[in-house]
Write a structure and sequence with these properties.
The structure holds 2 protein chains of 2 kinds. Among the domains of chain A are: 132 residues, Sandwich (Immunoglobulin-like); 112 residues, Immunoglobulin-like (Sandwich); 141 residues, Sandwich (Immunoglobulin-like), CATH 2.60.40.10; 71 residues, no CATH class; 152 residues, Rossmann fold (3-Layer(aba) Sandwich), CATH 3.40.50. Chain A is 27% helix and 33% strand. Chain B is mainly α. Chain B folds into 3 domains: 69 residues; 58 residues, no CATH class; 70 residues, no CATH class. Helix content of chain B is 81%, strand content 0%. In chain B, helix 2 crosses helix 3 and helix 5 packs across helix 7. Classes of the chains: A alpha+beta, B mainly alpha. Chains A and B meet through helix 8, helix 11, helix 12, strand 44 and helix 13 of A and helix 2, helix 4 and helix 7 of B.
């Protein structure tokens, strides 16, 4: 029988190995593998498509390999799939747009490594290795970028000569990451390899070549337009197609309606019959674009035309869409702009600005009947507020759709939920109009702004849902606000941060420039450094198109200034020789304006006085950072269909138009916490004084009173004492408190000369506990009784630790156990085992959820603060006892505050509550 | 001197953390915390792990040497430690490898077993807690029955008011006592931190008061 079983097992193993070997060594299982160029892009994208394997193969992921030569492909990325369910879709797709790093410092090997489980002739390699030479050989095959710390580039780079110029160079180890984006006209090779549940890489697909091309942009932009005859204004609002980063220019045209078929497909050569109305550069990729054009000069009948949005990519390849939703509107139809304020966001590290809109609003989100007979309503509401105002009270007025008053309710403490009892006449009402007004803190009356909502009962969901929302009778259901902003280094205002009209605040994040993605210019094999552009943008002058940028080297900058001066002189002499050279005059004017802009710029003036090159660079860097983090703001209100109105550039009361976030030294929301801490410190000092002049009373704590008896019992029985410090880390105050008690317990065990076992689940706490126990034994004159092996580490995991402690409890027949520290689900497992073993158990924890279990199963439990008081209680040290008294004094203050708060809020005075940082 | 320098380190370090808690400044939040403290902790914790390994090895080797009770089990520690290390270092820790297989098929089921024991221990603890030996224990018993019944469909069948009563017990008396304990815990932990920061409590430096 046994032999037969062995034979079956052997045969099974052989068959599994054979199947496995066939999968690994045999032909590829991947079928219908295709690689093609991503359409409508600039040639930087590739699509991979293949048929996924069935779930029987237990595939966990598909590895994607890429290379610029057919014989060497590197692991680029992978697609994870569920091995149990497999892939439901008929095909899997992978889009390579260069968003995955070519190499990763955590996972890339240090040298070239062949991929596992592949034949000797396989072209597959693991991740691109951390090899400068190899990386240097491929950077020209891609658009290569490095993610790097600006500090390293500006302060730790090494100048390297490249042809006739010097560029900053960084070693591979100084970079944070490398990204390689495919580029048009270059051959790339791809393949896919499935990986099964056992981590084995199965036979890869065939290697396919692709040559991405720069395609025309996708003609799928969604555009809206409206014309305002009273002001001769034409508005455009559009959402760009995918791949908008490749669009260089936006154009607006008008095409006679007769030229556009019903399908709205533009005919060939449509531009010959169209009138161009604007052309603007695509300065930055936005989610949505706005443009407004005054057309007084155009004498045409707009009823006979359709607007066209056209765009060209950087290779001058065009695309265009006809605007289907073209409207004629009055200026009055344009949405009103909100009141807004731009300010530095308080209590941050200086990386955000705040745009706040008007005063707070309250609106209903959901409502339902709270009684069976539909006589009581339960309404959930939301408060939209900003940093400038705090809502104190809310008034809800309920009306019928005909305007008949139903009732009124004032919410004195906004908890986002109200209940309203309907009068009998309005029982089971199906539509209610709610008018909501707010009273602000420190204000005596409700605000005049009224938010009105129609909430309608939905029979399917059996709930009321808000349908229309009006602010001061203006419908805001389709109104959105857009915060437009522009830094010193940008040419135009950026858009794309849209929020609905109920929003009262918008955070504009202005991050510090710690990391930048920089194109790699070249690789210098002699110094093994990657070279980067060394220019710093300082400022722009958008009207004349001037960009003030400097190289990192002062010498190079001065050289450039001299060359500019020379060019000006040459141009002046050329113009003097040929007076009709208008192009040269324009170039001369530009160069002069650029020179004047630079020479009068504060950055130049301040840096000119710098005594060293380093100081010069520091000044330029500080101006660069200041320019990058300074913004101008505008707000735009839109109906999302081109009826928009934009504000002027925001200026504050002092006329300031540029704003930058400021770093804060103190978080004002923590003022009360700081005051409380200072009060506690004062109380401690007072308590120290009191305890030194007289004996103070400390309430007896049963668990600690019994400590001597518990250890004495262990001594009498000749069995060990165990101290379990829980599984808190050294960063937890409860662990520190636990170690303080451990010191006292160790003294007692040393005194009685009984063995102390101290298991740990944190290897950082372990050496500290060893040191504490060792010192305690020495202090009691029993250093010889100290056994370091009794203080040990068990496991970092919760249940292995619990199993280990339980095992010791049973094996060593421990007489007394102390559980002191932070505990979770293992608390009951530990104490029940101790209970079964007949040990005396004393527990102390600040984990509220575990206290009931300890109370049930332990002989004595220190609840909450008693745990923290234990070391003072045991030591009876005056200074430590004073801390207990200070806590008691502070508790009296808390109780007084709670009573005052309860009384005042019951009387609807909420100012006291608002003084506390309540969530 | 043996205690003064560590005490100074603790006080200065503590004050930095107090400043970190109250100040959102870039230097404290970004430069100190993200750029200095976190990388330092990551680097240090991996070295500290060696302490744990060393402690375990010392304890088990001493047990084997002394032939302490059940010393044979200590060989299992060495066997499993070596096997896990080899599986991790040679085969890697990714899914599908031997290391992860061992984790999923040995460690996880054993942890689950320990956790599932909790149900039985809980029943035994509940029996002890709910014995109506005193008026207080009787209140506890009634409250527990109401709350437990309200969690199951049977409770609603018995009375439609049961979930409301249960929610009231949880929201009012239960929450009030819980907050009382938490207030004491919060105050206790602040006081302990202050004791350390002001140098009143020094036993963590290695014994003594």
């Amino acid at each position: 029988m046994k032999k037969a079983l062995y034979l079956i097992m052997l045969l099974l193993s052989i068959s599994i190995i054979r199947i496995n070997a066939a999968e690994l060594a045999g032909g590829s299982l991947i079928t219908e593998f295709e690689v093609y160029d991503l359409p409508d892009d600039d040639g930087s994208g590739v699509i991979l498509k293949w048929k996924p394997l069935t779930k029987e193969h237990r595939i966990i992921r598909y590895n994607i390999y890429r290379g610029t030569a057919k014989d060497s492909l590197f692991l680029l990325s992978f697609l994870e799939v569920d091995p149990k369910l497999g892939v439901m879709a008929p095909y899997l797709y992978y889009y390579d747009t260069g968003d995955q790093p070519l190499m990763e410092f955590e996972s890339s090997p240090h040298k070239l490594k062949k991929e596992k489980n592949q034949p000797e002739s396989s072209p597959l390699y693991q991740k691109f290795p951390l090899d400068s030479e190899l990386l240097g050989s491929v950077i020209d095959d891609y658009s290569s970028y490095a993610l790097l710390a600006t500090k390293k580039l500006h302060s730790h780079s090494h100048p390297v000569n490249l042809e006739d110029e010097q560029l900053p160079g960084l070693k591979l180890i100084q970079l944070e990451g490398i990204y390689a984006i495919p580029k048009a006209g270059q051959d790339y090779y791809y393949c896919v390899a499935p990986v099964n549940e056992r981590g084995q890489i199965l036979a890869a697909s065939e290697v396919l070549r692709v040559n991405p091309t720069d395609n025309p942009p996708d003609a799928t932009a969604i555009a809206h337009s409206s014309y305002y005859p009273d002001s001769h204004q034409l508005n455009f609002e559009w959402y760009p197609p995918t791949g908008a980063h490749d669009i260089a220019l936006w154009q607006g045209w008008l095409l006679p309606k007769t030229e556009i078929p019903e399908s709205f497909k533009l005919p060939d050569n449509w531009q010959q019959r169209a009138v161009q109305i604007f052309e603007i550069p695509n300065y930055q990729e936005n989610q949505v674009y706005y443009h407004s054009e005054k057309l007084e000069h155009l004498d045409i009948d707009f009823n006979q035309y359709y607007p066209i949005l056209a765009y060209l990519d950087y290779a001058d390849q065009p695309a265009a869409v006809a605007v289907k939703s073209f409207r004629r509107l009055d200026q009055n139809a344009l949405p009103a702009l909100p009141d807004y304020k731009v300010m530095d966001k308080p209590n941050d590290k200086g990386d955000a600005m705040l745009v706040s809109f008007g005063k707070p609003l309250v609106y209903i989100t959901l409502a339902e009947y709270a009684s069976k007979h539909h006589r009581k309503l339960k309404l959930n509401y939301e408060i939209s507020e900003n940093e400038n105002y705090t809502v104190d009270e809310i008034r809800f007025k309920f009306k019928s759709p005909a305007g008949e008053a139903i009732g009124e309710l004032v919410e004195h403490y906004p908890d986002k939920l109200i209940q309203f009892k309907l009068p009998d006449a309005f029982q089971d009402i199906r539509q209610i109009r709610v008018e909501i007004a707010v009273k602000l803190l420190k204000s005596s009356a409700f605000e005049p702004t009224l938010l009105r909502q129609d909430i309608i009962y939905n029979d399917y969901f059996k709930r009321f849902q808000p349908q229309h929302t009006y602010i001061d009778d203006a419908d805001v259901s389709q109104l959105y606000y857009e915060v437009l902003r522009k830094s010193h280094l940008e040419w135009d205002f950026a858009s794309g941060q849209r929020s609905n009209a109920l929003t009262r605040a918008y955070d504009h994040l202005v991050p510090y420039e710690n990391l930048v993605l920089k194109p790699i210019v070249a690789y210098d094999s002699a110094s093994k450094r990657f070279l980067f552009e060394d220019r710093l943008d300082i400022d722009t002058e958008p009207e004349q198109g001037i960009l003030f940028e400097v190289p990192l080297s002062r010498q190079k900058f001065e050289q450039e200034l001299a060359e500019r001066e020379k060019s000006i002189l040459e141009l002046e002499s050329a113009i003097n020789a040929d007076g009709s050279a208008t192009e040269l005059q324009a170039e001369l004017d530009y160069l002069k304006a650029e020179k004047d802009f630079i020479l009068s710029h504060p950055a130049y003036l301040e840096a000119s006085a710098a005594k060293s090159d380093k100081a010069w660079r520091e000044i330029m860097l500080s101006y660069h950072n200041q320019a990058k983090r300074s913004y101008q703001y505008k707000v735009l209100a839109t109906d999302t269909k081109s009826a928009f109105r934009s504000s002027d550039i925001y200026q504050d009361a002092t006329g300031k138009t540029w704003f930058s976030p400021e770093v804060q030294w103190f978080d004002s929301t923590k003022t009360l916490t700081l005051i409380a801490t200072i009060v506690l410190v004062i109380l401690v000092l007072y308590a120290i004084y009191i305890t030194r002049i007289k004996e103070v009373y400390i309430r007896p704590i049963a668990g600690l009173e019994e400590l001597d008896n518990a250890i004495g019992r262990a001594t009498e029985m000749g069995r060990p004492v165990m101290f379990v410090p829980g599984w808190g880390t050294l960063g937890d105050v409860c662990t520190i408190a636990s170690l303080m008690i451990l010191a006292q317990v160790a003294k007692k065990t040393a005194e009685y000369d009984i063995r102390l076992i101290n298991p740990h689940c944190d290897y950082m706490v372990l050496p500290l506990a060893q040191e504490i126990i060792s010192t305690s034994y020495s202090e009691m004159g029993r250093p010889d009784s100290f056994n370091q092996n009794d203080i040990f580490f068990i496991s970092y995991d919760q249940f292995p630790f619990c199993a280990g402690v339980n095992g010791i409890t049973v094996r060593e027949r421990v007489a007394t156990i102390f559980y002191m520290g932070f505990f979770n689900a293992e608390a009951l497992l530990l104490t029940e085992t101790g209970n079964a073993a007949g040990a005396i158990q004393i527990a102390a924890t600040d984990a509220v959820t575990q206290i009931p279990f300890f109370i049930t199963t332990c002989d004595y439990t220190l609840i909450g603060e008693e745990f923290y008081a234990a070391s003072a209680y045991l030591s009876r040290n005056h200074d430590m006892v004073s801390m207990l008294k200070a806590q008691d004094y502070f508790k009296i203050l808390i109780v007084i505050a709670v009573i005052i708060g309860t009384v005042l809020s019951t009387l609807h005075y909420n100012s006291f509550l608002h003084a506390f940082p309540l969530e | 001197m043996k205690k003064t320098i560590p005490l100074l380190i603790v006080i200065i370090g503590g004050l930095i953390w107090v400043a970190w808690a109250f100040s959102p400044h870039y230097v404290l939040q970004e430069v100190f915390y993200n750029q200095f403290y976190l990388p330092w902790v990551y680097a240090m914790s991996s070295f500290a792990m060696l302490l744990g390994v060393l402690s375990l090895t010392m304890m088990h080797s001493a047990k084997i040497k002394r032939k302490a009770p059940k010393w044979q089990f200590s060989w299992f520690f060495f066997a499993s430690f070596i096997a896990t290390c080899l599986a991790g270092f040679i085969g890697g820790t990714q899914k599908g490898g031997l290391f992860m297989w061992m984790f999923e098929n040995v460690q996880m089921p054993m942890s689950a077993t320990m956790f599932s024991l909790l149900a039985f221990y809980m029943a035994s603890a509940a029996y002890k807690a709910f014995r109506a030996r005193s008026p207080e224990a009787t209140v506890l018993l009634i409250a527990a029955i109401v709350v437990m019944l309200a969690q199951v469909p049977l409770g609603v069948k018995i009375s439609k008011h049961l979930p409301t009563i249960s929610q009231w017990i949880l929201d009012v008396p239960n929450l009030a006592s819980k907050r009382g304990i938490m207030l004491g815990v919060g105050l206790g932990s602040v006081a302990t931190s202050l004791k350390i920061l002001l140098g009143i409590e020094r036993s963590y430096l290695g014994g003594g008061d």
